[in-house]
């Protein structure tokens, strides 16, 4: 009985996530272990053998194997689609530019659509990169597991998302990469820069944000390679740097 009570005492005490760089606190060890299963443990899809970090990511992926209608964005000129209605709801906020979550770090003040995006952004202010690539000769290190997973696909040459546009043979590691690329084929450019004496127009809000970052001198995208302190106003600049300097095709 004493041993049984000791087990209860162990699981009823507050606990902290054991993954380096996470440090989330929980009221009990039961809650912490649930967090570990949901957010950090690698799970494999039994239908296609693809691996995901956390059961939530696997559950979302399994919807792609189900037969059913895709949810599509109804914003003019946007062809984003997803099996998850929650993804569509979050995506629409991008078009509306609703950013209620503000970074409180000194001299930052960046705003985000969701609390999750704000939490991810907070890692920018930290130098900790606990997730390292184990590919021979690669020194890339990441602050999150998901970028590391995508990074590994580039080593393996897996580019399963092909552009459907006629005469375009580009392919991409992620669906999001393909979606960004497809915006380049759009003739309509609804996003205009309101910087004084500029007025350039862009097909996507993300491209406009990168452009405005250049006006403001903001460079939030940092190179992931150890010892390289280069940073860029947008992801395209970072990708080009990775290709040219580190010979890493992303």
Please provide a written account of the structure.
One of its GO terms (cellular component) is nucleus. It comes from Medioppia subpectinata. This is C2H2-type domain-containing protein. It is found in: Nucleus. Keywords: Metal-binding, Nucleus, Repeat, Transcription, Transcription regulation, Zinc, Zinc-finger. Strand 15 and strand 16 (231-232) form a beta hairpin. The N and C termini lie far apart (58 Å). The strands form eight sheets. Strands 1-2 form a two-stranded antiparallel ribbon. It has a two-stranded antiparallel sheet with strand order 3-4. The protein is globular and about 60 Å long. Residues 1-11 have low confidence and may be disordered. The longest helix is centred in the middle third of the chain and has 12 residues, at 85-96. It has 250 residues and is an alpha+beta fold. It has a domain at 2-65. The chain has helices at 2-12, 29-39, 55-62, 85-96, 115-122, 145-156, 175-182, 205-216, 235-244; strands at 15-16, 25-26, 42-44, 51-53, 71-72, 81-82, 101-102, 111-112, 131-132, 141-142, 161-162, 171-172, 191-192, 201-202, 221-222, 231-232. 37% of the residues lie in helices and 14% in strands.
């Amino acid at each position: 009985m004493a041993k049984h009570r000791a087990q209860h005492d162990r699981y009823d005490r507050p606990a902290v996530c054991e993954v380096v760089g996470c440090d989330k606190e929980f009221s009990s060890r039961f809650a912490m272990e649930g967090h570990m299963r949901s957010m950090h443990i690698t799970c494999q899809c039994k239908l296609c053998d693809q691996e995901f970090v956390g059961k939530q990511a696997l559950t979302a992926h399994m919807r792609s194997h189900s037969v059913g209608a895709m949810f599509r964005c109804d914003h003019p000129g946007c062809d984003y689609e997803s099996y998850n209605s929650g993804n569509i709801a979050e995506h629409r906020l991008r078009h509306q530019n609703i950013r209620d979550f503000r970074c409180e770090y000194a001299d930052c003040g960046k705003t985000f659509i969701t609390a999750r995006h704000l939490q991810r952004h907070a890692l920018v202010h930290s130098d900790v990169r606990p997730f390292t690539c184990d590919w021979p000769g690669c020194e890339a290190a990441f602050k999150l597991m998901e970028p590391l997973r995508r990074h590994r696909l580039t080593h393996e040459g897996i580019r399963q998302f092909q552009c459907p546009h006629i005469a375009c043979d580009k392919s991409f590691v992620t669906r999001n990469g393909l979606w960004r690329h497809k915006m380049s084929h759009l003739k309509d450019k609804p996003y205009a820069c309101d910087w004084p004496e500029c007025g350039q127009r862009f097909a996507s809000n993300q491209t406009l944000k990168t452009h405005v970052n250049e006006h403001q001198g903001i460079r939030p995208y940092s190179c992931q390679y150890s010892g390289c302190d280069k940073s860029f106003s947008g992801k395209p600049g970072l990708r080009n740097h990775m290709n040219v300097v580190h010979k890493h095709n992303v």
